[in-house]
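retry 2 of 3: previous attempt timed out while embedding adenosine monophosphate. Reduced batch size to 1 and resubmitted. Inputs unchanged:
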Amino acid sequence: MKVLIIGSGGREHCLAWKIAQSDRVKEIFCAPGNGGTQGLARNVQIAPDNIKALGDFAREEGIDLTVVGPELPLVKGIVDEFQGRGLKVFGPRRQLALLEGSKVFAKEAMAKFALPTADFRIFSAEVQAADYIRQKGAPIVVKADGLAGGKGVFVCGSVEEALKALKAIMVDKKFGKSGNQIVIEDCLQGEEASVLVFSDGKNIVPLASSQDHKRIYDGELGANTGGMGAYSPAPAVTDVLEQKVNTEILQPLLCGLNNEGKIYVGMLYLGLMLTEGGPKVLEFNVRFGDPETQAILPRLKNDLVQVMLATIEGNLDKITLLWDSRPCVCVVVVSGGYPQDYEKGKQIFGLQEAAKVSDAVIFHAGTKKENENYFTSGGRVLNVAALGDTLEKAKARAYEAIEKINFENMYFRRDIGWRALTKPKKELI
Ligand code: AMP
Ligand code: GLY
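retry 2 succeeded.
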């Protein structure tokens, strides 16, 4: 088979790495890929949202399966476009990619199917939204409706802060049309966790649980980022909790959508807040999580291509996922200054040495290869994942590999996995 992977981050390198292990796969292409995918795949210089050009490429090259990493092509309808051309593609169609592409659509679906989530109101005018914020008081959460590169959510500790967020979204149009509507919702307290599932429309197959670390500094301090690290499994996601998520969230959502003739096919990511009143949905993503995927897939024993084909063909009832029982820790290495301004073009040293650490694997994100050297080309540079008999050992191995790597202004968090490692044992039962 020939497989095309769309995207350029650590998640896509990880997908390429896992897909390359499949006996069925003869050749992999990445559009556009990065310095790391270059060793496994042929990088093709087509932007992930240039759907028409991707479709042309897939047809001309005779691609048998296309796997979409980021949300933008899904929200722009790549699955509809490819299916219309008779091309096999993994992901939901545009109408359901809106579960991620529109927070208004997502919250309306949550309300319609009675899923547990924060109470909310939707506004398309600033004045009414401001009145509501003053009436509710803080803490309060303000969200731009559309895609905003992960920057459209403001968790506000004061009314002033919420009004400032509202102005940035609706008046200054910081996120363009994505701010035509906003969601204002109650602020939930608790621990966050991610649950990822394959769905073929009839059957749901959950992946191993995971948790990511969104803040830039140790101890969950500083700015929100695209994720500074992740680990799997997440002890907070117990079997009982998983069952609750299935009966209270996944079944009502997917059955409700089915009844409307909307069949969800692909990967569904639930961002959850584990509150005292049970799990509540913070967000849906319609794709593999980043960096969760880089902590989950090293543990998966199945042939990922077989699972993806079963998802597309409606055969997930025939699939049982098998997991390496060892935990995996993935640490994200970034350019100093990220998520704000940072410099690019720094040479990266020590990658070969790092890859020699046993059970460690280095996924590239913002890198490019020139001759035999690697250089930084983005804020998120590398994802260093490692398996170990215990979470402590997995963590130690990931950091052992990182110690071998260096580039100017390199930064990473040193406490990935802390939540699971500091949890009192009784909570793990
Ligand atoms: P979202 O993209 O909607 O998941 O929001 C991004 C992040 O904002 C989440 O991972 C949470 O950390 C936080 N967040 C979103 N909604 C809420 C909420 N209702 N209460 C507390 N934190 C939230
Ligand atoms: N780790 C969060 C995300 O993939 O959106």
